[in-house]
Amino acid sequence: MNKDVKIMLKIYKTKERDWLGYKIYRNTPLTRHHIFKRVYGGDNDISNYALLIEKSHEDLHRIEKIDLQAYNELNNLFRELNESMQPPNEEYYQNIGKILKRVKKN
After folding, report:
1. Tell me, what's the pLDDT at 106?
2. Under DSSP, is residue 101 helix (H, G, I), strand (E, B) or coil?
3. Distance CA 52, CA 96 (A)
4. What end-to-end distance do the CA atoms of the chain give, in Å?
5. Helix (H), strand (E) at residue 51
């Protein structure tokens, strides 16, 4: 496991669900999503990462292609969570769910 992922697991206590709300199973590897893309100058450190399982990371980039506004809203929630240095709470997951529900309707 990547050292940055280990640090983030300690800070955010990501155990049951990743930052997009996908269930984490026992041997599910977590990936680091760059909140602000590296190609646009985003940092390659924990201040710019969201913890996602591979499936949700792939789905997030599919959302980017079909609904850029929703993708940006999700990244804004990731950024806020990252800056808080606190584990995701139910309000956070409800906000994520509202955006994902809107994307599924379209």
Report:
1. 67
2. helix
3. 13
4. 36
5. strand 49-53
Burial class (CB in 10 A: 0-12, 13-18, 19+), 79: middle
H/E element holding 106? Answer: none
For residue 76, what are its two tokens? 């804004």
CA distance 59 to 74: 12
What backbone torsions phi and psi does residue 21 show, to the nearest 5 degrees?
Answer: 90, 5
For the segment 39-80, what is each residue's pLDDT rounded down to a tens digit? 888 888 999 999 999 999 999 999 999 999 999 999 999 999
- As a whole number of angstroms, the distance between CA 30 and CA 18 comes to 8
d(CA 9, CA 43): 19
Tokens of 103: 């994307």
pLDDT at 104: 87
Residue 22 confidence (pLDDT): 97
Reference 85, options 15, 18, 13, 12; nearest CA is 12
